[in-house]
Amino acid sequence: MKKFLLIVGGFIVVVLLAAAILPLIYKDDIKAALDDAIAENVNAKVYFDESRFGLTLFKNFPNLTVTLGGLGVVGIDEFKKDTLAAVDQVDVVVNIMSVINGNYRISGLYLNEPNIYVKVLANGKANYDIAKPSEEPVAEETPTESGDVQFGIDKWEIKNGNIVYDDATIPFYMAMKGMNHTGSGDFTLSVFDMDTYTEVDKMTISYDGVEYISNKKLTADMVLNMDLDAFKFTFKDNKVALNDFGLNFDGYFAMPEEGYDMDINFSSPENSFKSLLSLVPGMYSDSFTGLTASGDTQFSGFVKGIYNDTQMPAFNFGMKVIDGNFKYPDLPSAVSNVNVDMLIDCADGNIDNTLVDIKQFHLDFGNNPVDAKLTIKNLLNYDMVANIQAKLNLGELATMFPMEGLEMKGIFSMNAKSQGVYDSIANTIPTIDMEMGLADGFIKYAEYPIPMEQINMHTTIKNESGRMAETVVLMDKFTMLVDGEKLESTLRFENLDDYTWDLAVNGGIDLEKIMQIFPMEGMELKGKIAANMQT
Fold first, then answer.
1. Sequence-ordered list of residues with C-beta below 8 angstroms from that of 403, at least 6 positions apart, any chain
2. Residue 71 and residue 52: Cα distance in Å, rounded?
């Protein structure tokens, strides 16, 4: 027994000595191979802190771990001011037998606090395209030579990363802050399953200048089948959530020569109205967990077809909210009777033929109902039918959605109908029949002591023919009181082809008080205007 223990102890000592000595033996060779690989293959400025370059067998035994600190990649030419990547620390795991054989097979990659900025210019040139072109023809089977670096990453990890993708060719922008990500998959195979888990503290996505997702939390637990020969990626098991709103995906995404081919179906596995509310800007806050909500949602859609410079895939997006309501615990009133039936459909991939159909939109802000319907048959001449009715008590609304420093009162009402097409050549617009008003309005900002009060307004907008020349805007009443100074006005505005108006203003304005309510940086105004004007 004693002899056995001595043998085991001796073996452990030898292993520990080897683990300590081998990195020292191969440190210079690995650094030289790394420098050569960068110089031969990367067309960018790559730097790292040589004092933080290290090797160890203990971190991922029995494989060798190469550590790079302060790693950065900076572009050249148009991208010479752009840092593609700046990483606090990179750990690269290298198969120890490949090191001994002189072939460096990378099997793991770990990034700590990476800042990655991917930029694609409008002409298609990308800052990540930094690989030097090979001067030799590629053979069908190229034997591995001594000194080659192979990428067979089995596992990777990102800790506390920030990633931006800015593509002007689409145009598409995505920013992910506070990303933590792990993944595994055998990239030495042409077909394999890639298993990933991702958490992002704040994600923002915009398309063509319109922000569709703003600072939302993302979690994604996904398995993708990777076909690297066909560049086809198939969704398998997945659980994805934006804030509290869960999504399921199935289908595939591929990259053939003609563009991006996709057939993706998505739906929400949960039918909670509260989870849908978590996507609304300003709703998802520290107090969101205390919000009470009920109601059902239905959400589904698809994207199918080829995307390239000349065509778009077909897409469909449908959502329903059934008997939804919500209320914050410290507020007196609830938003209730939320019912929505909405469809966005582009059946042939021609964006001009997109249908927007809001068949129903109703909610009650306490005792304040809002109803709306909207159908837009296409995005070419905007053949539309719209209808909206609302009556809002601004004082009650302010208690439901308090805005710090702002006090509001009054009854606002609107009744609007519109139908027809927009034709810039024929100079026509949809018909309009709109009436809106404000009674006993009151607005006061906390930082300015003077309120605008006794605001009364009544306005109608009518166009019965669709001809711009027959549009009539009539504000038959507008009154407002500011610190005892009363202002009255009426306006009749018509004929959008040849502007015709009748405007009358009567009353007084104290410019210094107005500047207190609506300050303009760098400007100071004083004095009183007493007006009795008609134009």
1. none
2. 10
3-state secondary structure 102-115: CCEEEEEEEEEEEE
> How many angstroms separate the CA atoms of 278 and 403, rounded?
19
Please tell me the distance from the alpha carbon of residue 418 to that of residue 424, in angstroms, as a whole number: 17
Low-confidence ranges of the chain (pLDDT < 70): 1-37, 39, 58, 60, 96-104, 134-152, 281-288, 517-518
Say which DSSP state 137 is in: P
Helix or strand run (H / E) with residue 38: helix 2-41
Tell me, rounded to whole angstroms, the distance of Cα 340 from its chain centroid: 23
CA–CA separation, 391 and 416 (whole Å): 12
* Tens digit of each residue's pLDDT (9 = 90 or more) over 206-252: 988 888 888 899 999 999 999 999 999 999 988 899 888 888 889 99
Cα(106)–Cα(26) distance, integer angstroms: 15
d(CA 513, CA 8): 90
Q: Is 172 exposed, middle or buried (0-12, 13-18, 19+ CB in 10 A)?
A: middle
**Separation in Å, CA 506 to CA 331, 442, 489:** 41, 20, 6
DSSP for residue 23: H
The Cα-based distances of 455 to 43, 410, 487 in angstroms read: 66, 8, 10
Max Cα distance, the chain (Å):
113
The tokens of 18 are what? 């080897």
Cβ contact 300:267 at 8 Å: yes
| pLDDT value of position 17 | 38
Selection from 207, 143, 218 nearest residue 179 by Cα: 218
Residue 271 and residue 239: Cα distance in Å, rounded? 15
Rounded to the nearest 5 percent, the helix, strand and coil shares of the chain are 15, 60, 25
CB neighbour class for 179 (10 Å; exposed up to 12, middle 13-18, buried from 19): buried
Q: pTM of the entire structure?
A: 0.72
Q: How far apart are CA 190 and CA 227, in angstroms?
A: 6
Distance CA 389, CA 412 (A): 11
Return the structure tokens found at 146: 């001594």
What radius of gyration, in Å, describes the C-alpha atoms of the chain?
32
What gap in Å lies between CA 455 and CA 439, rounded to an integer?
Answer: 7
- What DSSP letter does each residue of 289-345 carry, written as one string? GG-EEEEEEEEEEEEEEEESSS---EEEEEEEEEEEEEE-TTSS--EEEEEEEEEEE
Residues 531, 489: contact at Cβ < 8 Å? no
Going by C-alpha positions, the residue among 220, 150, 122 that lies closest to residue 180 is 220
CA distance 114 to 176: 12
Residues forming a β-bridge with 292: 327
Q: Which amino acid is at 197?
A: Y
